[in-house]
Amino acid sequence: MKMYITVKNKLWISLSFACAWMLGSVWLALPWIQDLSDIFNPFVAWFIVIGIAIVPGFANAFIIPALLLDKRPGYPIPDILPDITILIAAYNEGSTISDTITSILKQNYPGHVHVIIYDDGSTDNTEQAVISHVKSFTNADNFTLHYRQMPANLGKSKALNMGLKLIRTKLFITIDADTYLYKDALKYLVTNIVCGPPNTAAVAGTIVVRNSRKNFLTKLQEWDFFQGIAVVKRTQSLLQGTLVAQGAFSIYETAIIKENGGWCNKSVGEDIVLTWALRAEGHRVGYAERAFAFTNVPETYRQFFKQRERWSRGLIEAFKTYPAVLLDIRPNTPFIYINLLFPYTDLVFVTAFMPGMIAAIFFQWYGVVGIMTLILLPLAIIMNWIMFIKQRKIFIDNGLAIRKHFAGFVVYMLFYQLIMIPATITGYWKEILKIGNKNWGTK
Hints:
Layout: H1 7-39, H2 42-68, E1 84-90, H3 97-105, E2 113-119, H4 126-131, H5 134-139, E3 143-149, H6 156-164, E4 171-175, E5 179-181, H7 185-195, E6 200-209, H8 216-238, E7 249-253, H9 254-260, H10 270-280, E8 284-295, H11 301-321, H12 333-340, H13 342-363, H14 376-397, H15 406-433
Parallel strand pairs: 1-2, 1-4, 2-3, 6-8
Antiparallel strand pairs: 4-7, 5-8, 6-7
């Protein structure tokens, strides 16, 4: 007989382990802090050590027990599923949208699927690419295509809101115009919201990297989506609330989104702001770990920088729009506070850890990066191994292969932050100072 552990108890177990790890880390770090105090001053010393070791260690230690205790049962797919709408906002996606449409038409979904494509003033061949599929929709019994165009490029949120007005089904799904749905992705995603708790307003699907073989940067991002993003969403869902239902592949209750006014037209992080709006109204956002969709990630560092800058701006937008989230205590609240500390830890990483690492490598000065920083390595290795085991099982159970990018995994685990944090820091400050354009980001 399996012992059932309630969500509340899982939360307390995770928090207890994380706090114990944090206290042990502080005790071990006291000599390090004293050495740094002699060089700088006590305030700077604590500022550096907390940002480099204590906060990241607490976050990792919180996730590990949650993952080990995650024994959720999968929902069986019902024989009858409701009609749905798929909403796609497109801008200059002529090279990718054909594959997206093809993947939709290949879905063996029992209900009717209405596809709404809202073109946000594309200047390439997006329209022609969509029109080439009209015949396929005409010949399909349970698929309908609606194509609309914005008069000019007005932004993704506005295109989504225009498409929202056309939706008549109880549920709708957003996907990006470069997303490719894996087999039965629609079934699994819809099942998760239909069979989930009654207060579920949205469910995020699982995003997998499609173009990982393009270069080393895309390989690193494959590990980020596989190890980091998916696992964090899974853990947040375990604690009754995924914090971002990403626009690339998520499902929503239509009436709730319309009552909320749709997406914020002034927001660059429209998906996280919408998700937090749902949370503020008392709704739950779930995660469908078996609903897979492939997406193309940035292939150049410039595109990657702009994407991660946009994501970090979105996080600040969410806190600015819904500051009361800090006082709304729920099982997933620890993740709210961990997110709140991201700007601080990223700042310490850039201003202290990176210079300290350069000093250690080239000048053999180990004041900032030395033996004490190795405390984090065992925890990071354990966490990444548990993440890998959990995700590998899901992949294997659903017929997906894990590409063997061992070098990419090592670089991801040890150095991925080095290439990502300059972009996140830029995004934080741009949003705080209200500078820079808010656009599609990677075009």
